[in-house]
């Protein structure tokens, strides 16, 4: 009986993480067919990322302390639950933003004259790491924790990735402008 007590909770946690990582990320992710799918350049790529300051404020310790002092205990507990639920929705939005950036990365790779295996491996490993950290943050939120630092890390990853995408697009545009008209290299 003692052995089961120590094995069942980690097994449940691992199954929850796997379920979170393997489920479809968004309705748009289900519709894509091929590397570029229905991606439209006019779609905003980072829709949720920009709301991090509001999430940081809602999850801050100062805000939580004020809520504990100003509100009755039942109201404070309900507000904390709702704030964690909002943070979980925000986390889902960050996953959607990352999915959009991945799709844009595939589009850039398709247009790029030189894509090496190292870059593709880095992109794949970054995706795995991002999804794993998202799963851990989701679990912490679900258990009542306020993982502001990890959410900030994820938003930082999105910002840096978006900047790299923009730089890559600038480089591709510069290369295509240098090619003579009528010649396209693959």
List key phrases describing it.
186 residues; mainly alpha; 7 helices; 75% helix
Descriptive account of the structure:
α3 packs antiparallel against α5 (73-111) and α5 runs antiparallel to α6. By secondary structure, the protein is mainly α. It is flat and about 70 Å long. The protein has helices at residues 2-22, 27-31, 52-59, 61-70, 73-111, 117-142, 148-178. Helices cover 75% and strands 0% of the residues. It has 7 helices and no strands. The chain has a domain at 44-164.
State the gist of this model.
The chain is mostly helical and 186 residues long.
Uncertain segments of ≥5 residues (pLDDT<50)? 28-43, 182-186
Helical fraction:
over 70%
Q: Describe the largest sheet.
A: none
Structural class from helices and strands? mainly alpha
List the helices and strands and how they pair.
Blueprint: H1 2-22, H2 27-31, H3 52-59, H4 61-70, H5 73-111, H6 117-142, H7 148-178
Helix pairs in contact: 1-6, 3-5, 3-7, 5-6, 5-7, 6-7
């Amino acid at each position: 009986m003692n052995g089961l007590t120590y094995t069942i909770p980690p097994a449940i946690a691992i199954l929850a993480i796997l379920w979170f990582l393997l489920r479809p990320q968004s309705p748009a992710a289900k519709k894509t067919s091929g590397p570029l799918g229905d991606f439209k350049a006019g779609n905003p790529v980072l829709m949720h990322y920009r709301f991090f300051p509001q999430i940081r404020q809602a999850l801050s310790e100062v805000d939580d302390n004020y809520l504990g002092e100003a509100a009755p205990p039942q109201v404070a507990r309900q507000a904390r639950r709702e704030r964690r639920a909002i943070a979980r929705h925000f986390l889902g939005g960050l996953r959607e933003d990352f999915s959009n950036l991945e799709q844009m990365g595939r589009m850039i790779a398709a247009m790029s004259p030189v894509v090496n295996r190292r870059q593709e491996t880095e992109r794949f490993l970054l995706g795995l790491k991002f999804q794993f950290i998202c799963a851990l943050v989701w679990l912490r939120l679900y258990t009542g924790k306020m993982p502001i630092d990890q959410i900030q890390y994820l938003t930082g990853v999105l910002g840096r990735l978006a900047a790299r995408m923009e730089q890559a697009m600038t480089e591709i545009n510069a290369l295509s402008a240098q090619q003579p008209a009528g010649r396209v290299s693959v």
